[in-house]
Request: fold
Amino acid sequence: MVSCSLESLDDKIKTFGKFGDTGRGGVTRFSLSAEALDARAEFKRRMEAIGAKVVTDDMANMYATIPGTETLPAILSGSHLDSVRQGGNFDGVLGVLTAMEAAETIVREGIPHRHPLTVVVWTNEEGARFEPAMMSSGVICGKFDKAAMLDSVAKDKPGYTFGEALDKSGYKGSEANRMSPDKAVALVELHIEQGPVLENEGFDIGVVEGVCGMINFEFTFTGQAGHAGTTPMKYRQDALYAAVKTIQYLHDELDELDSRLVYTTGKISCHPNIHTIIPDEVKFTLDARHQNPKVIKQVLEIIKKIPSEVEKCRVSYSEAWSRKSVAYTPELVDYVEKSANEYGYSNRRIYSGPGHDAQYVVDVIPTTMIFVPSVGGHSHCELEYTPTEACLKGANVLLRTLLYIDGQ
Ligand SMILES: [Zn+2]
Reply:
């Protein structure tokens, strides 16, 4: 059984961890920042060293291609090199490094392949400096309007647009280089799980079936402000108390649904937020995610049962945004599972909670993902960690999956 190289993969992880190193085990590497451009240059240098031709498209997505033995569309694999502020050394970058490792192994071992193999780097996946997330895969897959994206303004520099950063980067290429069905036959993206399931259940590999659908609601409770010392309890219209009762109701009801449902109240505001005043307006959010649209519908029914008045306070709510669940290409999902089994790696099928570039690409070409465990489930922080041995298993499954696609 051919294997990627542990030493070589470890060297890649360590080398790329230097670009934007925070000195505390993580990186800050915003898209198109000086640190991200250094990472891109290293990527280009290493890919050219194994004979790849590197091109970029008009959103600065990078494509490094090694030729196949036949004139066919390419098989793609990759992820993103940008990070959130004080992020980890694995989110995104590991998908690029394992794809490089798989390509290097194929070249080093002289493994024949009919299709060209392309390692792809998507620009601005995190949306940490220029919103939204998954910006450039979104543009080329028809999800976002390009002009609006170019006008996206940096959060830390008023008036500075993504379009300007793109022009300055030196990586803006031709629209003709965009991934498209005539040039690409499939995409496989490896990513860290960013959650605790694989580690806790003792699995080496997550065979990703899709991305969970999600809804996000904002609730508003309107009561009456009053003096904390003079207003008897029976006369109060306490908006915070009404909100707390509703959060409790939501937990009680939602816990009766499927155990794979995850939901969060992560944001709450209380007006006037003064310890001597009864709150008159409280807002909170509810984020709920599940792979099955039927369960999401049940969540909506539970929300609809909230009365228009709770504890004498007026209740209103609105949907802030939502995302449909995404299913990856079943044949490719099977290849990932088969590949993991061949190496004797324990694996389970899993749905992704977070969004990834691959979820836009699947609308254009056959696509799937591979997860490796995240120690402690940590992600988007400096504690994010996956041992190189565990990353290597992912790289091997990726390598084998690419060869299965090549043979189909
Ligand atoms: Zn990511």
User: Anything to note?
Assistant: The first helix runs from residue 6 to 16. The chain has a mean pLDDT of 97. The two ends are 20 Å apart (CA to CA). Residues 271 and 281 are 5 Å apart (CA to CA).
